[in-house]
Amino acid sequence: MSQKHLCPCTARCNLQRAMDSIGGKWKLPILCSLTANGTSRYNDLLRNVRGISNTMLSKTLKELEQSRLVRRAEYMEVPIRVEYELTERAKNLQPILLQLIQWEAVAQESNQ
Fold it and tell me: CA-CA-CA-CA torsion for 73, 20, 50, 31, nearest 10 degrees?
């Protein structure tokens, strides 16, 4: 009698949680902008992430903060200065993303 094995992704697993942290249209472009440009103000991100609206940038930054990938620092100056930076958790993600880039590059080469 064969035993059925359920895909581990049918339950709420670590892979799904990881993909929720970086999935969606805007999370990777924001993370890439912070990686390339370092600590950035909101308007810098709005300029650097082409096509994103104020609403989506604000919402996505909050989600990235909740996932502990982005840190928001507020400075009590006049006017108030707010900056966003990658956390150590996000910096640890960078080698994995580079491997995904290389993986896709190999797939593209094999399709040619």
Answer: 50
Give pLDDT, residue 5. 59
Give the Cα separation of 2 and 31 in Å (integer). Answer: 45
The pTM of the full predicted model, rounded to 2 decimals, is: 0.83
pLDDT at 7: 62
Q: Domain boundaries in the chain?
A: 14-111
Residues of the chain predicted below pLDDT 50 = 1
Q: Residue 46: CB partners within 8 Å, gap ≥ 6?
A: 52, 54, 57
Nearest to 12 by CA among 3, 2, 20: 20
The whole-angstrom separation of Cα 77 and Cα 84 is 16
For the domain 14-111, what is the CATH code? 1.10.10.10
